[in-house]
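Priority: medium. Attachment 1 of 2:
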């Protein structure tokens, strides 16, 4: 019985350490130059399968020629998703100019 508990504990710790917050990054032009950063949340339902509201990147970028777009599933986003059991799964879009 003790061995099963130890194996289960090890598997839980491994699953926490192997999971990560995903990040998708795109750099346009020379990348961010001015230090301006805009953040907006994207809202999804059912583990991200049904988009409810997503940010408009073109609107966030404006007329900038050099910028970086980062789409992240942050720790807070993951925590919210875990609390709602995956019914609501947000992500964050960051535009760095």
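Attachment 2 of 2:
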């Amino acid at each position: 019985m003790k061995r099963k508990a130890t194996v289960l504990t090890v598997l839980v710790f491994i699953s926490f350490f192997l999971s990560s917050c995903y990040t998708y990054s795109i750099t346009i032009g020379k990348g961010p130059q001015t230090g301006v950063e805009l953040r907006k949340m994207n809202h999804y339902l059912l583990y991200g399968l049904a988009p409810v509201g997503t940010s408009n990147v073109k609107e966030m970028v404006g007329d900038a020629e050099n910028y970086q777009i980062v789409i992240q599933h942050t720790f807070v986003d993951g925590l919210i998703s875990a609390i709602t059991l995956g019914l609501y799964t947000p992500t964050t879009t960051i535009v760095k100019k």
